[in-house]
């Protein structure tokens, strides 16, 4: 209901002042992509990935161990005693739980590091954006996620990335 009312208001205001809307400069910007694609952002992402490598390797090793146990169970299942089968199944279940926990922990760490990168580069991004708004006389910035479609000519993300790279200290 509220969306309908808002839609009607937007349409009514567009009909009332079409000249004002024709002169508005509306652009699309993905701030996260702009920050992470900048040279400094990519450097920080690579450093974060390198920092998380030991945990990733540990998870890979555990996954290989679990796969080996599953293969052993399938291959030797007929000749193993029931006690041995139960032990292997219990080990596999334990490894699955460890893998799931480790994977969730690694995802949380990756999200935290990404957020830290965004916060670190936010002041530089804000300055670059304010400069672009002034230079290009931008009236409105929309996020790509809020749009169903927009022409690429309205997307200034690449330009913001270039300005961030130029502003590098």
Draw up the topology in text.
Layout: H1 2-16, H2 18-23, E1 26-28, H3 31-37, H4 39-76, H5 82-136, E2 140-142, H6 157-166
Parallel strand pairs: 1-2
Structural commentary:
This protein is mainly alpha-helical and 169 residues long. It has one domain (17-166). The protein has six helices and two strands, in the order ααβαααβα. The chain has helices at residues 2-16, 18-23, 31-37, 39-76, 82-136, 157-166; strands at residues 26-28, 140-142. Helix 3 (31-37) packs across helix 5 and helix 3 packs across helix 6 (157-166). The radius of gyration is 26 Å and the shape is elongated. The model has no long low-confidence stretch (mean pLDDT 87).
The residue ranges in which pLDDT falls below 50 over 5 or more consecutive positions are none
Radius of gyration: 26 Å
- Note the beta-strand portion: under 5%
Q: Helix proportion of residues, in percent?
A: over 70%
Outline, from the CA principal axes? Answer: elongated
Give the strand tally. Answer: 2
What is the helix tally? 6
Global structural class: mainly alpha
Main sheet?
Answer: 2 strands, parallel
Number of domains: 1
What oligomerization state is this entry in?
Answer: single chain
Termini separation comes to: 50 Å
Order of helices and strands: HHEHHHEH
Strand order of the largest sheet: 1-2
What is the averaged pLDDT score?
A: 87
Structure in a nutshell:
This protein has 169 residues and is mainly alpha-helical. It has six helices and two strands; from the N terminus they run H-H-E-H-H-H-E-H.
Offer a few descriptive terms.
6 helices, 2 strands
